[in-house]
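We treat protein structure as text, and this decision shapes the records that our systems exchange. The tokens are whole numbers drawn from a learned vocabulary of local backbone shapes. One such record is reproduced below, unchanged from the form in which we store it:
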Amino acid sequence: MKTILSGMRPSGKLHIGHLFGVLENWRKLQDSYRCYFEVADWHAMTTEYRNPRAIRQNTLEMVKDWLAAGIDPKRAVIFVQSRVPEHTELHIVFSMLVSLSRLLRNPTFKEYVGELKAKELKTSGRRVLDRLVEQTLDRILEVLQQEQQSHLSAKEYRSLLRARLKETVAEGLNRLFHTTEGEELSYGHLVNYGFLGYPVLQAADILLYKGEVVPVGEDQVPHIELTREIARRFNEYYAPIFPVPEPLLTRFPRVPGTDGKRMSKSRGNTILISEKPEDLAQKVRRMITDPQKIRRGDPGRPEICPVFALHRVFGTPDLEAIERDCRSGALGCVDCKKKLLSQIQAHLEPLQEKRAGISDAQVVEILEEGSRRAREVARRTMAEVHEALGLF
């Protein structure tokens, strides 16, 4: 059996996007691969470093969802990244093999920095605008006083006022876009070293267990290229220890949130795997639909409706009839949502019942045992690495 490593950052209770996008795929992979499923808590620290204590409870909640979805500790190794110190040790070794410019080209890093820069620009812009308003008022008052003392003509007064205001605005814009002199990266203060190097740690995660395949969507194939580069470089420089992992292309269905956008906790548009029945009913009831379908009888466009998209995801049996009746106007949005609610409840109830029977103590026991098993493999790999490096 080939080896797979995959993992998640512990962010607490998971939503149905995780269920259909990752967990159902993991459940199938258990039967045909040697699977290591990692709680990537060091990766979580790259952004949650101010509140690391929340990571423990988030881990417990997340792993309960894994177990409820059918991830089996008897068929896969479920472990915590930070409980296996060899991850960080191999990360240090691999960090010597990657240039700074290569890390800066990472698409995820560039996207993240872009978001941070936009946020900072927005915050800085508000501060600069407030200061600019105050300074503008000061300049106007200053010019008014000059005008009273020197009795300027209207044309002279207008010219002086324009010059002072242009001066003030230019100063404000300069502050807004100013970069510290000599600073090589204008965004360097926005990103910690850990986040920049997270793909190197990711490579250590995969190669520590000699992962041969990595399950990814087609758009994520470039993300594992760095792991492949590191494996080849290590093998060339020192000894052929690591396999060069191949992507295992997997179709991840797009699961829309209740607002029609991609489901994400940051957007507040999720449906949790463990969602309470009353909360689930309220969320489905409030879901947006085709904006042109206002009343029952109005023809709808199911291809743009997130309610219909979730019908597809959950495999509603009478999908063709729903699509046909939506287009003709025979099916109203309220009834369509009732059908969806019934389908979601039927799908989630068995998972929720299983989840309710899993205690924190059971999760801790599973993670401790999984981490012990993972470390046995990790120690063997690092012994090979030390021998290949030839250090004292």
